[in-house]
Structures are given as structure tokens and as C-alpha cells.
From TrEMBL, chain A:
Keywords tagged on the record: ATP-binding, Cell membrane, Membrane, Nucleotide-binding, Translocase, Transport
Annotated ranges, domain ABC transporter: 5-240
Protein source organism: Allofournierella massiliensis
Protein name: Energy-coupling factor transport system ATP-binding protein
Major site of localization recorded for this protein: membrane
From TrEMBL, chain B:
Highest taxon in the source lineage: Bacteria
Signal sequence annotation: none
Location, primary (coarse class): membrane
Coiled-coil ranges per UniProt: none
One Gene Ontology term, aspect cellular component: ATP-binding cassette (ABC) transporter complex
Known EC number: 7.-.-.-
Keywords in alphabetical order: ATP-binding, Cell membrane, Membrane, Nucleotide-binding, Translocase, Transport
InterPro entries: AAA+_ATPase (IPR003593), ABC_transporter-like_ATP-bd (IPR003439), ABC_transporter-like_CS (IPR017871), ABC_transpr_CbiO/EcfA_su (IPR015856), ECF_ABC_transporter_ATP-bd (IPR050095), EcfA2 (IPR030946), P-loop_NTPase (IPR027417)
Membrane-related topology note: Peripheral membrane protein
Protein name: Energy-coupling factor transporter ATP-binding protein EcfA2
Record organism: Allofournierella massiliensis
ABC transporter domain location: 8-246
Length: 277, 294
């Protein structure tokens, strides 16, 4: 079986008086894939993400994780072991008073032997770049460092699938880059499936596949190149487009001849060099 | 123009004298002129937040001075409360600080503590709400019924209602989507233009700083790395990248083109400007081409 997560016609609202936050969303996440889910605030992306490890259950439609229906309570433990979630605000995810104890929290609850806990948390802390802070109190760390503690805690559980719900929103560019590097490393070298919910177009540009949500369902899908070269459509969904794509479009409008599908600075620089050399 | 905020040899050490003493700021001297819009950037741990919390006396310098209108805010006889009314600080994720029953009461909290009259408070609440784009009919609602982005506007309105002379915002757009981000930042810009209030904006986003600020203060490892007009700072793109800061993608494209040997300016940091520069370079190349064929 090739499917990690499959959502079919998922509808969900928080209360019957509210409109549907997720409204007919369908998507398949394949094993080993790195998928970015983009969308403006209120598009339902975070609500849908919470369905991926059974924090929320669909009102209608189905969500399956490695074939397990999230509505089947007997699978709950397995589903939570399979899909690890990292949220936006690190302060809501940290429980212990020492960094390494916080990273070890879930492993202790899972009954992992102490020697293995030591090895796994050391590795996780190194991968997230917080190893040197391991004996500090989390409240003495900056926001970005705290978020990397939270990410280390999930990485230490070695889930098959990592769902990141705007997990880098509070990090500085270098911190964000480090975290993204870590996540790509986990994806490539350990085969961990990654679903990254974000509104950072730069992060989505590094994914294998991009899904764009609007009004509770998926409205665009494809490789980053396929999605971001449609600058007008992406903008109409209240999202950013890469400046490289914007620059290319503006120059074409001004009458210059430039190839399609430019989204990275290297592609843009190469095309402009051809034009101006 | 006179400096409204100034630091002189400002050093701050957390837990000074303790085994875990950590220096967060080291010998920082700079001045902000009245009416400036200054962007403050720097990676996590560079000292940005420690710096801005000195401006209204939340933190006291370990050594050095913080001056408001040329007066040391910690000098004898200075009323620190007055400093706090003059310098309004909007923290990161300010929506977590909302607590009142209604949006009106929450925005009115600051002005009330300033001892203003009811009429003046009412005027200020409505003005601040209008600036942040909160409709009148929202004022009697509970702030907890609002979306995250709207809550943040209430929190910012609460600081604007104090009508500080200096408005300091720490990552006001963090976690918002592009539309929410542009809305909040353009409201801050409009407020700056219409009232002449001095604004200090902390941001991780070079694109935002490029778009809204006039001057940039770059912090690196507890010290000031650069402090100059936006175009002068972006002209040093390679240095910014070496400090671990990102520069706008167009700036990187121009950096690459220059490395490839093209003669292009260094200080391009917005798309419209990049378009203009490329079109000019293209026209120059064609003019030159005609010369050689002639």
C-alpha cells in the first residue's frame, strides 16, 4: 500500500451554527512524499490537518491513516504513533522545565528503555540544533529555539509521518531554514512522509507537491513550478508568489521575451542573463 | 531633527553577577529621529527584543543610558510612567493579552490608566479602532469572539489609543497570512504618515522592511551591525546574507546577475524597481548594439 493519508470528501464544522471549516476536502498523501498545503487564514488547512491524527473527526467523509479509519477508536493509539504533529505556538507544546526532559516526554510515556531514550533525544536535539541548550530551562530560550525543542520532541518519536501546522511561523530566516533542512533530511534519509501546512511560499517551493486550499477544499494541485507559475491565480487566493515569478510576469507584460515556469532566483537570473549579456 | 529615542553605550546582562549571566546587548549606541520609520532586523538572539524593551523602561540598562527627548529615562526625578505613555510597545502575539469583556473596554484600558476624561477616552478608542480597521459595531462585542487577525488589531488599537509618540511593534505580522500581514503593516504605515508618530518595527521579513521602513537597524550578536537608509542597507546584500539574514528574492537575483558579470546597481530590493532597472539595462544594451552595427 502506497497511501499514508487519504481524505475523501471531508466536511467538518466546529458547531452546527458555524459554517463548514472543511468543506468537501479530498487529498491523498503518498508514503515518502513531501507535501506542502498552502492557503490563506481561514481556508481550513489547520482544521484539516487536525484530522490527520484524529484530533478532529470528520462530520461526513473519511480520513484514513495507513488504511486505518480515524473514526475507529481502536486505531487511535496506532494513528497517533504513526502521525506526529507540530503546532505553531511553541509555548503551548512545552511541558517540562528542562529542554531534554521535554524532548524525552513522549518517549517516556511510550515506555521506551532509558538508554534508547538518551540516544534518540540526543539525535533529535542535534538534528533540531538545540543540543547545546539541552540543560536549559525552556522559558529562557527564544521563541525560535523553543519551537525547535517542540520539533525535537516529535522527531524523537520517529513517526512515519510528520504533520507541521505552520511550525516555522515564529522562526527567524536562519532558524526556519535549519528546521526545513531538518525536515527535508528526515524525509529524504529516513523516508518520513511530511505534510507541511504553511503560508510561506518559499517553504512550499521546496516540496515535492503543493496543494492549495480555499474555502475548505483543495483548489490547486501540482509541483511547485506548476502552481507558482500561475501567479494571478495564486494571488487571487490571497497568497504570495515568488518575486522571481512576479518579476518574470511584469517583464513579459512590459514586452520582454522570457520563458515560462520561472520560480527560483537561479532560473530567473539565468533567463535575465541570457537577455542582457 | 532632534533625536526622540537614543541609547548611549547601552549594555544589558540578564542575571548579572549570577553564574548564568548572559549578555544580551553590548555597547549599543544609536538615535532615532522624531518621525522616523525604522525597521529592526536581526536573527533570533541578536538582541532585538532586549533592545526594544529598554525604550519604555521595562528593562533597566546594566550600564549605559536610554534617553527620551535627550533625557535619561532613569535619571533622578524622571517619571517612568510618563516614559511608558510616550513609548507604546506592542509585543509579539499581543492578542494573548486581551482580557476585557468588550473590545471597547479593552482598547480603553490604557487611556483610562492615563487618567483621561471619559470624552477623551471615547474619542481615542473610536479613533484607534478606525485606524486598525475595526468596525464601530464590533466595539460592544467580546474580543474573544474574533478571529486571530482581528484580535491582534484590537490589541494594537489598545496601544494606539494611548497615542504614544513612539510606537514600537515586535513582529506585528507574525503568523498572519499575506493578506493579514499587508493589512496590518499598511495600517501602521498610514498611521505613521497621518500622525507623524515615530515607528520602530521589528521584523524577520526583509520584504516587509523594504516595503514599509525608511531606515533599517541591523542587529547581530548583541551589537549594531548596520544602521542606515533602506537602500544603503540592501546594497550590502552579501553582508546581510553572511549575517544569516535573508534579503528579498529580487535582491538575490541582482546579486547573482552582478556575480555573472553584468553591470547592474546593487540596491534593488522591490519588484517594480527591478522591472525598471532591467528595462533600462535592456534599452542600454540595444542602444549599444546599434552603435556597434553602425
Amino acid at each position: 500500500m502506497n497511501e499514508m493519508i487519504a481524505a475523501k470528501d471531508v466536511r467538518f464544522r466546529y458547531t452546527p451554527e458555524n459554517p463548514y471549516a472543511v468543506d468537501g476536502a479530498s487529498m491523498t498523501i503518498r508514503k515518502g512524499e513531501f507535501v506542502a498545503v498552502l492557503g490563506a487564514n481561514g481556508c481550513g488547512k489547520s482544521t484539516l490537518a487536525k484530522h490527520f491524527n484524529a484530533i478532529l473527526l470528520p462530520e461526513s467523509g473519511t480520513v484514513t491513516v495507513e488504511g486505518m479509519d480515524t473514526r475507529d477508536e481502536s486505531h487511535l493509539y496506532d494513528i497517533r504513533q504513526t502521525v506526529g504533529m507540530v503546532f505553531q505556538n511553541p509555548d503551548n507544546q512545552i511541558v517540562a522545565t528542562v529542554v531534554e526532559e521535554d524532548v524525552a516526554f513522549a518517549l517516556e510515556n511510550l515506555g521506551v528503555p532509558p538508554a534508547e531514550i538518551r540516544a534518540r533525544i540526543d539525535e533529535a536535539m542535534q538534528m533540531s540544533g538545540i543540543y547545546k541548550h539541552r540543560e536549559k530551562a525552556p522559558h529562557k530560550l527564544s521563541g525560535g529555539q523553543k519551537q525547535r525543542v517542540a520539533i525535537a520532541g516529535v522527531i524523537a518519536m520517529r513517526p512515519d509521518c510528520l504533520v507541521l501546522d505552520e511550525a516555522t511561523a515564529m522562526l527567524d530566516p536562519r532558524g526556519r531554514e535549519k528546521v526545513m533542512e531538518t525536515i527535508h533530511h528526515l524525509n529524504k534519509d529516513f523516508g518520513i512522509t511530511v505534510v507541511s501546512i504553511t503560508h510561506y511560499m518559499e517553504e512550499a517551493a521546496q516540496a515535492d507537491r503543493v496543494l492549495v486550499m480555499s474555502e475548505g477544499h483543495v483548489v490547486m494541485e501540482g509541483t511547485p513550478k506548476e502552481v507558482f507559475s500561475q501567479t494571478e491565480k495564486v494571488r487571487s487566493l490571497r497568497l504570495d508568489v515568488p518575486q522571481a515569478a512576479e518579476l518574470r510576469d511584469e517583464l513579459v507584460k512590459a514586452g520582454l521575451n522570457l520563458p515560462e515556469g520561472i520560480i527560483t532566483e537561479d532560473e530567473c537570473a539565468a533567463a535575465l542573463y541570457e537577455l542582457l549579456k | 531633527m532632534a533625536a526622540i529615542i537614543e541609547t548611549r553605550h547601552l549594555t544589558h546582562i540578564y542575571n548579572a553577577g549570577m553564574p548564568d549571566a548572559t549578555t544580551a546587548l553590548e555597547d549599543v549606541s544609536f538615535a532615532v529621529e522624531e518621525g522616523d520609520f525604522v525597521g529592526i532586523i536581526g536573527s533570533t538572539g541578536s538582541g532585538k527584543s532586549t533592545l526594544i524593551t529598554h525604550f519604555n523602561g521595562i528593562l533597566k540598562p546594566t550600564s549605559g543610558q536610554v534617553l527620551l527627548d535627550g533625557k535619561d529615562i532613569w535619571a533622578k526625578g524622571q517619571d517612568i510612567r510618563k516614559v511608558r505613555f510616550a513609548v507604546g510597545l506592542v509585543f509579539q502575539y499581543p492578542e494573548y493579552q486581551l482580557f476585557e469583556e468588550t473590545i471597547y473596554k479593552d482598547i480603553a484600558f490604557g487611556p483610562k490608566n492615563m487618567g483621561l476624561s471619559e470624552e477623551e477616552i471615547d474619542r481615542r478608542v473610536r479613533r484607534a479602532a478606525a485606524f486598525t480597521g475595526l468596525p464601530e459595531e464590533y466595539l460592544e462585542r467580546s474580543p474573544f469572539e474574533l478571529s486571530g487577525g482581528q484580535k491582534r488589531r484590537v490589541a494594537i488599537a489598545g496601544v494606539l489609543a494611548m497615542e504614544p509618540r513612539v510606537l514600537v511593534l515586535d513582529e506585528p505580522a507574525a503568523g498572519l497570512d499575506p493578506e493579514g500581514r499587508d493589512m496590518i503593516l499598511s495600517q501602521v504605515k498610514r498611521y505613521h504618515k497621518e500622525t507623524g508618530t515615530t515607528v520602530l518595527l521589528v521584523s524577520h521579513s526583509m520584504e516587509d522592511i523594504a516595503k514599509y521602513a525608511d531606515k533599517v537597524l541591523v542587529m547581530d550578536q548583541k551589537k549594531i551591525a548596520m544602521y542606515a537608509r533602506v537602500d544603503k542597507v540592501f546594497a550590502r546584500a552579501d553582508e546581510l546574507l553572511a549575517l544569516g539574514l535573508s534579503v528579498p528574492q529580487v535582491t538575490k537575483i541582482f546579486l547573482k546577475l552582478r556575480q555573472m558579470g553584468l553591470d547592474l546597481p546593487q540596491d534593488v530590493y522591490t519588484v517594480p524597481w527591478a522591472v525598471k532597472t532591467i528595462l533600462e539595462a535592456k534599452a542600454r544594451k540595444e542602444a549599444k548594439g546599434e552603435e556597434t552595427t553602425c
